[in-house]
Structures are given as structure tokens and as C-alpha cells.
Design the sequence.
């Protein structure tokens, strides 16, 4: 312990006790910040590894989807020529992609502009209510 720490609390002035409290508070805050930084660093590493694994899973899933497309083309080629089978499957995939694109575009249009309109209206209503309340309080 420090020299100050070995002195009995009763023998110390208020100023010394306040100084000790201030020092201990600074030390506590510094230690808590260091702990938080270490925890965030650890969580960041875990998030990075998780994101990398998710990306790898996406690539493998893409390869799996491509294998299914090839299987569909080969299965259809048993009935029609190979070029026609590829054309049919490709056309079906383009229809699915087009539909998804149109739905996505409509969703984006509904989200733009990114202004919380309901919350803004609520705040405006609150401000109006406070102004009316302050006018009634003055009269």
C-alpha cells in the first residue's frame, strides 16, 4: 500500500480523502475502459472470423446452386437437345432474377428517402403540445 493508504482514515483530512477518492475513481474508470477495449477487441476478432466463415459458406452455396443448375440442364437434355435445355433453364433463371429485382426495386422505393416520417411527425406533435401547454400555463 502507499503511504497514504497506510494512514488511518480518521487521521486524514477531508481534502486528502477527496483526493484519494478522485485518484481511485480515475483508476477505476481507466481500468474499466481498458477492460471494455479488450472485450471489444475480442468480440471484433470473433465477428471477423464469423464473417469470413459466412462468406465461405456463401461461396460454397453458390457452387452447390451451380451444380443444381447443371443437373437441371442435363436432366432436361434427356428430353430436348442440350442447347435447348440450357436455354430453357437459363430463361427460367432470368425470370426468377427479374422478379426478384422488381420486388427489390419496389421495396427500395418505399424506403427512400430514409427519413423516419412517423417519428418526425410525432416530434412535431410533441412540440406543438408543449407550446400549447406553455401558453395555457402563462394565461
Sequence:
Amino acid at each position: 500500500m502507499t503511504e497514504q493508504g497506510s494512514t488511518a482514515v480518521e487521521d486524514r483530512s477531508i481534502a486528502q480523502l477527496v483526493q484519494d477518492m478522485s485518484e481511485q475513481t480515475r483508476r477505476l474508470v481507466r481500468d474499466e475502459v481498458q477492460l471494455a477495449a479488450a472485450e471489444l477487441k475480442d468480440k471484433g476478432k470473433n465477428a471477423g472470423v464469423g464473417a469470413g466463415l459466412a462468406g465461405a459458406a456463401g461461396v460454397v452455396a453458390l457452387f452447390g446452386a451451380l451444380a443444381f443448375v447443371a443437373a437441371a440442364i442435363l436432366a432436361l437434355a434427356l428430353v430436348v437437345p442440350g442447347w435447348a435445355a440450357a436455354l430453357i433453364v437459363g430463361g427460367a433463371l432470368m425470370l426468377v432474377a427479374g422478379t426478384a429485382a422488381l420486388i427489390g426495386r419496389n421495396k427500395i422505393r418505399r424506403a427512400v428517402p430514409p427519413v423516419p416520417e412517423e417519428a418526425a411527425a410525432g416530434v412535431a406533435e410533441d412540440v406543438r403540445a408543449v407550446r400549447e401547454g406553455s401558453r395555457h400555463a402563462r394565461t
The radius of gyration is 34 Å. The chain has two domains: 1-76, 82-139. The mean pLDDT is 86.
